[in-house]
Fold this sequence. Notes:
Layout: E1 8-14, E2 20-26, E3 29-36, E4 43-47, H1 54-57, H2 59-62, H3 65-74, E5 76-80, H4 101-115, E6 120-125, H5 127-138, E7 143-149, H6 158-174, H7 178-188, H8 191-194, H9 203-212, H10 217-228, H11 234-237, E8 243-249, H12 255-264, E9 270-275, H13 282-285, H14 291-299, E10 335-337
Parallel strand pairs: 4-5, 4-6, 6-7, 7-8, 8-9
Antiparallel strand pairs: 1-2, 2-3, 3-5, 9-10
Organism: Zostera marina (Eelgrass)
Keywords: Membrane, Transmembrane, Transmembrane helix
Pfam families: Ndr
Amino acid sequence: xxxxxxxxxxxxxxxxxxxxxxxxxxxxxxxxxxxxxxxxxxxxxxxxxxxxxxxxxxxxxxxxxxxxxxxxxxxxxxxxxxxxxxxxxxxxxxxxxxxxxxxxxxxxxxxxxxxxxxxxxxxxxxxxxxxxxxxxxxxxxxxxxxxxxxxxxxxxxxxxxxxxxxxxxxxxxxxxxxxxxxxxxxxxxxxxxxxxxxxxxxxxxxxxxxxxxxxxxxxxxxxxxxxxxxxxxxxxxxxxxxxxxxxxxxxxxxxxxxxxxxxxxxxxxxxxxxxxxxxxxxxxxxxxxxxxxxxxxxxxxxxxxxxxxxxxxxxxxxxxxxxxxxxxxxxxxxxxxxxxxxxx
Length: 344
């Protein structure tokens, strides 16, 4: 793991949809990053939840025309995989220590160094939100904004800790059985799409279930162990001065933790939106509900839809949270803001 002091690219492959896959050697092991877009544009870094990668966590959002035109026109997207979560990944050797959440946050910094990136926009989902929030605390000058979906900020409750231990034991002894996939799907999605004995699960759940079959259980076990060992970062939230947009599904098991996090962020820089009839992974279950809030959020950086944008290559320079984020009627019927007052 620590054989070299420099990050080096050891493999680059062209994959579908024009993405370029890089495997980068860091002090904390190999990490895979898939890059979409013009690297002269501002950078948007993504990090998914446990057992997911960009295809199972962000593809729904990037297939949503309104959101895709906004994000792909304005940013170069850098999808960071949790270690060993890329397609075709080999099991990570048990001789390699499991990284801590601080190690994973510092690994993100090494990824930025490899690509020569300065300040970036960060976009994380649940466990990925925690990693990127921790990264923002440790490297405040390198984060211009945070987009967080059903984020975590506290150490695990006893209930979550034991539940994660149960999933860890399944991974360790049985790989990826149907019971574990059911546990993970309940973490990601609402009952509306999970189905029951009388209603078939939705296509999006079926697709995610199929993608979970491709994960190396050993590697998922390691990431779950890292997240289950996370520490409380609540005290550091007030020090974050980057603009933050939070989404949470109404039925997310992490709803109360998201409320806790949004209430501890500086009110001048944070807006939070609840998406009704939705689980944790809003990016897949209701990506259309995210487009308008994202547009208003990015207006504070001088970014617009393609037809309105004059220079997508210009550096990001935040001004304020758009007032429209405070207006429920401007964001669609499925949305209601958690934060209703932001003083600037």
